[in-house]
Amino acid sequence: MERISLSVKELQQAGVPKWCAKMVADSMLSLYRRKDGKSPYWWLKFVVPEPLHAQLGALKRVSTGHTDKVLARKEALRRVAEWCAPLLDPAPPTNVSPESKSEDRLLEPFVRSVLLTHELIDELCRARREATMWSREDDANGVSFDGLEQVIEDKTGVESVSDRGASQKHDDPAHRPLPPGIVKNTKFDEHVSEWQPRLLSVIERGRNSDDFDDVADEAVEFAAVLGYRVGSDDPSFVAFVRNFARADLRAYKAVQGDGSEADGFAAVAPVAGSHKLDYLLTQWRANRTRNLKPGTVELYASRFRVFVEHVQDIPSRIVTRTHVTRFLEDSVYGGLLTEKTANGGYLPALRSVFGYALSVELIDQDPTQGISKPKLSKAERAQQQKPRIPFSAEQLNALFSSAWYAGAARDVGTSTAVKGNARYWVPLLELLQVLRPEEACQLEVTDVGVVNGTHALRVEEVLEEVDVDDGRSALERRKSVKSYASKRWLPVHQTLLDLGWVEFVSARKAESTTGWLFPELSRGKNNSDAFGKRFNDFLHKRLQLDVVQYGLRHSWEDERRRAMAHAASTHGTWPPGMYFAIAGRAATEKEEGSGANYGEGYDLEDMKFFLDQLQFKGVIWPARWPEWAKFFGPEADASAHR
């Protein structure tokens, strides 16, 4: 299914009225081919905007009769214009007698029933502001009207007010024709004093205001004078009345000498649905993000902007569940997002923004409620998943004999990620200690040491310190973990000790007793991003391998299975929960039962006995760190540039 875009200009040229064209242009229009193969043609799917449901229905589908996509689009334009034709010329009233029909049509403007749209509400409110300011000017010049005079030129030659105003040129404001819809019975200032509190009440409280019915009657009567019959059951009726009240208040402010119509309205609640989607995001970021981490705020904002790009920055009041559902479906079924990311990532972001907008009455309904989440079949889900293939012994040997371990930093790249000791140790920590990339790159000097005679390292979560903590704003994480179970002390694998881990740690602590263990790594949104990008690029472009950095952890899992199988065959099985304790996984209760929640866990010495059972047979390890540092490390690289 491919979404098509029809511009407002195209729609108007095809015969769609202006007030309706913008709404149709912002709607969901798609061309698709039937999957059952029963038709070779392109089909049109038109998700009708909600304000037009009463006349057009909620959904229209039809064959374009064309296999060529360009011709199908032209036919789609013609079809949409044909569907909107009933909105152009509604049938005149039928309850008028034949004798009086012609006279009534002359004496009264023709009123046609309409459904309110964002554009029509703007048109009516703009006319109301102009009419109100005209009324004030005539009041200041001593002009009084008891009603709107409409004198129709008849056979005797009587002129209408508008005709006389057009034929006689004059500059006196008192003699200008009054725009339609204003009935002057009181002085303007008295009118303002009476109505201003009532209008404010309607803007702030909507239909819950005691003055809502009076203001609504004024709005309906004004629309009727301009030729529009508005029903109180219209989905946008409340938004129209509140906009109408706001238009009057702005006009009052303008004629009372304020520099701008908008001055003095900071405390007036915005009318529900009168803003576009980008405005909702701006308000959400300004008022509802202090409890979120900055990274989460940016993530939610970027995901909401993806939705805005999909539906365009349309008025918020016309966004429906259909828009949200189609966005999720197109993203998941089109392969742009995984099912988990769309339903568990993008939908919560949309719900957060729309939920806040509803709570402050920027919109009348939350389009994310009642959403049916898109789901893939098992086959489709498996096809979308990107498997993290473990390294084979041959691939590990290719890595350890490559320039990554047997070459200078300049032979690997210019990134700071390859100019320090992280280049040597991070892949080994992931392989031998089953550390996640973030866990390895965020190690600090204080995270390594000797605990009860066993060399160990610590994985933990640390929050950034702040000068002033208001208790409300979320703190940034200096170091993070995947889950609570990921926080752990674990023994150092014997192979790592053999490669010179103790010498490296001692050298690093001699430089500083605090700080990062690998200070050369840049710290962005995540501590491991820079290193991971460079390492994966090397694997793919230089070594032509189909594995990624995370595959090192999967290699540990395969080796652990071999070790456990060997232990079982020799009557030395691993104790319950040992594997999960080393790997930092949250499924300990599956093996230990409720007892997993009691005590402090396994001793490091006991854990080391089982960890060292992973031998990685067939792997040829790189040179020990002291030799590597001498020939390829940071100091050797610095000497080469002198």
TrEMBL record:
Q: Name one GO biological process term.
A: DNA integration
List all Basic and acidic residues biased stretches. Answer: 166-175
The record's section on SUPFAM superfamilies has: DNA breaking-rejoining enzymes
Q: Which organism is it from?
A: Paraburkholderia youngii
For this protein, the record's InterPro entries field holds: DNA_brk_join_enz (IPR011010), Integrase-like_cat_sf (IPR013762), Integrase_recombinase_N (IPR010998)
The superkingdom of the source organism is Bacteria
Q: What's this protein's name?
A: Core-binding (CB) domain-containing protein
Q: Where is this region: Disordered?
A: 158-181
Gene Ontology MF terms in the entry:
DNA binding
User: Which keywords does this chain's UniProt record carry?
Assistant: DNA recombination, DNA-binding
